[in-house]
Write a structure and sequence with these properties.
By secondary structure, the protein is an alpha+beta fold. It folds into 2 domains: 78-204, Penicillin-binding protein 2a (Domain 2), CATH 3.90.1310; 211-252 and 264-561, DD-peptidase/beta-lactamase superfamily (Beta-lactamase, 3-Layer(aba) Sandwich), CATH 3.40.710.10. Helices cover 37% and strands 19% of the residues. It is elongated and about 120 Å long.
């Protein structure tokens, strides 16, 4: 029997219902899948950023250094002449806390005090400030950060900051200076070149950290040995004016300058003003020779003390006889030098000092520069005493630059801490090459048979001059408060470097027969520095044979061990 199927038009079958539900499910699944894929893509992109770039959350100081292009410019590094970093900026983590999440401040404070140089009380005080964010410690080491991470406190967190680092520690603190918490230069080269460094540029200097180490160690040994209150040293290239090393003791930690008292942050070489004693005879005798007021062989009578008004001029080790100009310089006669200055004349002496820059601040790329203290009235007595460094105070750098000109065929070059491809102005001629040659021979006489014998290392020709002066304290000269110096030049056959060493208030010793003068305290430092530094500067000893080199290495090893 044939049956006719019912007409289902207008009705939904079971199969049709199932098909509709499946279509909707597929659509929903597709949408969920798309959302998940987008989420995973975003997570993957962020992970890639973190792994390739790292977490970066600039603080206010760093944000202030952003360039208009949106690029962060880290403060530029400073290097020595050989490319060694002497100042740089590093990204370092700092520790913060959310006080609202701290459940037990005592426990947290005790745990942090075992890792960081902080007391539990200090940590608790920081946490008590309230709010959602407090700094607990800035600039962590990697080890400290890991130890804190291992504590597992969710209320603690880290934020990267930038800190100025001085890899050589105190070695160059007075020259480099330091920065504030915002990364701006406050002193030294950091201040002088603040704009350049903040733009991210590298500052190359003329300093040599090898020589700086040698000079600092040698000056420190003399300061310790003679129980002095401080010391200073400068080495400069005579031909270029480049400062190779500059030491001022005591020094300070440039990472924590606020912890150092003012006397430690004081750069004796550029802001210390001292009477430099008999080293000034280099200038007064050179002036007299240059002006034709005298000749090396002219004789002056230094038999008896010289009386000028109320002043009496005496010699430290009186020869009590007539002497030539050469002998006056060799024996460092105050009487003879004063007589030469009288013949030269006050105006000529003043003008010569002015040409050397002794009446103004030294032109060097440091913000800390002191003005010399010259006599207010230049009468006959002031002229006589100034000729041998009494009553006229300058910085050690003034003496270094001026004396270098006397040896450098009479050419005065401005000192510099950064390489200068070309001088903006030609070197000023102070004396003739002929006068310079005479002065070089007289300077070498001092080290060969005068007060500078202790400055000469084996195998080197060195010239120089001692200087010892009583310091002025509260407007009066203080007996036995000496400022003792030696300024040396080497190698004297072709002078290339000038080296000044000064020891502040040294005390006499039994093995120096009670003396604390420049020949005993500063001259040996010059000898030690030349012995160690000259080979590094490419200046070989005359006896640098195999045996000489072996003895040199042995001597250096012994010095470093002491």
């Amino acid at each position: 029997m044939h049956k006719t199927l019912p007409d289902n038009s207008g009705h939904i079958t079971l199969d049709g219902q199932r098909h509709g539900f499946l279509q909707k499910a597929h659509l929903r699944m597709a949408m969920v899948t798309c959302v998940l894929m987008l989420g995973f893509a975003a997570i993957a992109w962020r992970l890639a950023q973190l792994s390739l770039i790292g977490v970066y959350a600039p603080d206010a100081a760093t944000a202030g250094q952003m360039q208009t292009a949106g690029v962060i410019a880290l403060r530029g590094s400073i290097t020595d002449r050989n490319g060694e970093n002497i100042a740089t900026t590093l990204r370092m983590p700092s520790l913060y806390a959310d006080p609202t999440l701290v459940s037990n401040a005592d426990t947290l404070a005790r745990a942090l005090s075992k890792i960081l140089p902080v007391t539990p009380a200090a940590v608790k005080n920081d946490l008590a400030r309230g709010g959602r964010f407090v700094w607990l410690y800035r600039n962590l080491t990697p080890k400290q950060q890991q130890q804190i991470n291992d504590l597992g406190y969710p209320e603690l967190g880290f934020r990267d900051e930038y800190r100025r680092i001085y890899p050589q520690g105190n070695l160059l603190s007075h020259v480099l200076g330091y920065t504030d918490s915002d990364g701006n230069g406050i002193a030294g080269l950091e201040k002088q070149y603040n704009g350049l460094l903040n733009e991210g540029d590298v500052l190359h200097t003329t300093l040599d950290i090898r020589v700086q180490n040698i000079l600092k160690r040698a000056v420190q040994q003399s300061v310790t040995r003679f129980q002095a209150i401080g010391g200073a040293g400068i080495m400069m290239d005579i031909k270029t004016g480049e400062i190779i090393a500059m030491v001022s003791l005591p020094d300070f930690d440039p990472h924590n300058p606020a912890d150092a008292p003012a006397e430690k942050r004081f750069n004796r070489n550029t802001t210390g003003v001292f009477e430099m004693g008999s080293t000034f005879k280099i200038f007064s005798i050179a002036a007299a020779l240059q002006k034709g007021a005298t000749t090396p062989d002219e004789v002056f009578d230094a038999t008896a003390p010289l009386r000028i008004g109320r002043h009496t001029i005496r010699d430290f080790h009186a020869e009590k006889r007539p002497m030539t100009v050469r002998e006056i310089f060799l024996h460092s006669s105050n009487i003879g030098t004063a007589l030469i200055a009288q013949k030269l004349g006050s105006d000529n002496l003043q003008n010569f000092f002015r040409d050397l820059g002794l009446f103004s601040r030294v032109h060097i790329d440091l913000p800390e520069r002191a003005l010399p203290l010259a006599p207010r009235r230049w009468g006959e007595a002031a002229t006589a005493t100034a000729s041998y460094g009494h009553g006229f105070a300058v910085t050690p750098l003034h003496l270094t630059v001026g004396a270098a000109a006397i040896v450098n065929n009479g050419l005065l070059l401005p000192p510099t801490l950064t390489p200068k491809p070309q001088l903006k102005t030609p070197a000023a001629r102070i004396i003739s090459p002929q006068t310079s040659a005479v002065m070089r021979s007289m300077l070498e006489d001092v080290t060969a048979k005068g007060t500078g014998k202790n400055a000469v290392p084996a195998g080197y020709r060195v010239g120089g001059k001692t200087g010892t002066a009583e310091k002025v304290v509260n407007g009066r000269y203080k007996r036995k408060a000496l400022y003792s110096s030696f300024i040396g030049f080497f190698p004297m056959d072709r002078p290339r470097y000038v080296l000044l060493v000064s020891i502040d208030e040294p005390q006499g010793r039994k093995d120096t027969f009670g003396y604390a003068t420049g020949g005993w305290t500063a001259a040996p430092v010059v000898r030690q520095v030349i012995t160690e530094a000259a080979p590094l500067l490419g200046i070989a000893s005359d006896n640098m044979t195999y045996g000489g080199l072996r003895d040199y290495v042995a001597a250096i090893s012994q010095t470093n061990a002491e």
